[in-house]
Fold these 3 entries.
Entry 1:
Amino acid sequence: MSKNNNAGNIGFEEKLWSAADKLRNNVDPGEYKHVVLGLLFLKYISDAFEEQKEFIIKDGGDPEDNDEYLAKNVFWVSKKARWEKIKSQAKQPTIGQIIDDSMVLIEKDNKTLKGVLPKDYARPSLDKTRLGELVDMVSTIKVGDKESRSKDLLGRVYEYFLSKFASAEGKGGGEFYTPKSIVKTLVEMIEPYKGRVFDPCCGSGGMFVQSEKFVESHQGRIGDISIYGQESNPTTWRLCKMNLAIRGIDCNIGQHHADSFHKDLHSDLKADYILANPPFNISDWGGERLRDDKRWKYGIPPAGNANYAWIQNFIYHLSPNGIAGFVLANCSMSSNTSNEGEIRKNMIEADLVDCIVAMPEQLFYSTGIPVCLWFVSRNKSNGKFRKRTGEILFIDARKKGTLIDRVHRELSDEEVKQIADTYHAWRGEKDCGKYEDIKGFCKSAKLDEVKEHECILTPGQYVGFEDVEEDSEPFDEKMEKITGELAEMFAESHTLEKEIRNNLGMIGYEF
């Protein structure tokens, strides 16, 4: 691969984003992400097709036999839809229609992509000059050949774009993107090595991507995990299909978008792992129509807030030894309104709550409020770990993370590891050391203690305050030093005041 085609170059994503961002003037951010990501997807499958085509020719096969491609899990791209044609027409005013026609052909030839790809590039509101410039920029990289896929270059660009779109859209961005450090913390804690992984509100599929990365980084086999998902937003569902397709991740997220509460596409699924970031505090989830639902084993969730409906939905879909890790707003740990306190009490008494992690503020693009991570286990004494029945681990990570810009914070890999290692040590897993309570950070609390706190699960109520190093300097000496410094500051302020008065007097403003 030539240097000009190397998407790994530092700053490449930023350059591509700058080209895409030029569309902002005449396309809403919620729409132009589909414009850009659709082009990236089209370039990806075209590159992969061309690579497989060269291999078929060298092997003496028929390069126009689509079965030769499907057998290798490569999407078939007909001549009229290939990137070279799109690239050659980038400066034409008809470029939008050419792209739309390509998308239609690709969906027609690949049944798994039916209804997934964006097909509105020809609309008058989309600046065709800017679109052509974006095509030229995307043309400078190879994102679908073997070398690029091995480095996950398109995945990297795709993830970068998702985060940038989430930031640009503000609150709307949270519908499809969960910040990487949150996803990574969840995945590192529940360790989905082998079994069924489920996300009933999967957004753009970030939980699945991180799960596969986790398995790969720990020398596991990708084929050992089966992925299931569901997404209610139709545009986000299509985004997820594209995100997983470009990474070659096999996943059952249904043939269409669907509401997990009212049309459960995996009603019989019992998952070994659940990873999820459900929408926070949703009031219009239709709970009044589900009062007698079989999933509400621990109490009927309020019709005005879906938080405890999500929690019980997760529990319902767990296998006998399953574990769920999910994100919720902090109010979920302490709310007592509309039966939520009673539901939480029932879950605690059933010994389902394994761990609660309080996270720092400003992790999300969609909201600045702090969130918490819940970990729910169907069987704390399944023989794989040290028995932690009758206990809950509380971790207070509110002071973690570093601001990456004025409004967004991220956890470092070391901080994620500290949180995950604390959890694994508590569970008695090998090579994690011995667990110990650390003031201000973590505490293993018996259920009786939790009940004394009225079943409130806020970690700060349990971990206490970290020890502060004792100041050994005598009080009199400290005060003498402080007052001396203060006297110097006062003297300096008087000098500055005199200089200011003199300067004002010189221009006729004495006072």
Entry 2:
Amino acid sequence: MIRTVTNVGEEDETVYSPTVDAPSNVTVKLTPDKLKFTKYSKKLSYEVIFSASTSLKKHLFGSITWSNHKYTVRIPFVLTK
């Protein structure tokens, strides 16, 4: 899954790093692993790949939180069978 985000902060250049809160049997891979905004790149895309070590028998909830030194953006997700 590919997602696009826009930097609406007043800083022209900033780097957001992710923190993933996922269920114990789910691996979440993010590419790239940091979002580096510049005054020329206000929109950036990242790819999310979910892998489960077992079959999903119920809804699983988690989130990806991107943060820099000033702002935090939380993106919740739900995985279903």
Entry 3:
Amino acid sequence: MRRQIVAMLLFAVAVPLGAETDQQRGKRVVDEGVAALGGDNFLGMTDRVESGRAYSFYRERLSGLSIAKIYTRYRPVPGSKLQVEEREAFGKKEDASVLFMPDGEGYELTYRGARPLAPDRLERYYDTTMHNVFYILRCRLHEPGLIFESKGSDVIDNMPVEIVDITDSRNETTTVYFHQSTKLPVRQVFYRRDPKTRERDEEMTLFSKYRNINGVQWPQAIQRERNGEKIFVMYSDSVEIDKALPDSVFTLPEGVKKLKPADD
């Protein structure tokens, strides 16, 4: 009788554990990821400044190198496409930069003035941001229709990972790989259609060298690949969070000359 009772108790414990659905497991892994990134500190992050070196590649060969500083601010604006604005500044004097605004506008700023970004470049930035795991977890976590589905576990680049598909109401999916030990995102993959060639491109980003900044874990190394080829790497020497960045960082300078859009 005692053995029967023990067996029944073990069965009662095992059933709930085994009954976790793919969506429940996916949501659990995502929640653990948010907690590992800093929990409320991550979710309450208002702005960020990443300073370091940016490398661009063409067909796996280095095509550009620059000192870079990326300013990011989270700011929900009613009717805006995104809840974030960003300035990418280059050079020691930051005399060249690219400005992305929440309303979908964007400009390239140089000593000549402000030139509107081409529509395809703006669309790529929008797609990349909407699929970015940190943007999803920071700004889209409670978006209606968002589904988290576990795709199981695996070993990628000698790292044990939990794989989760995050799918939104538009049926757009980002596959995120969370490290099983640290719970932090180490890789993301999504697909987009090239507007000119109409070919399907695989966009992959790798995250590594996390550091704790003001209670937030943030990667110091970010590498982007397209169809298996490395296209961009950013190594941050420093990352600052919640600096109360002024509006002037994310707006066009007063009196700046407006240039015509570049020819296609």
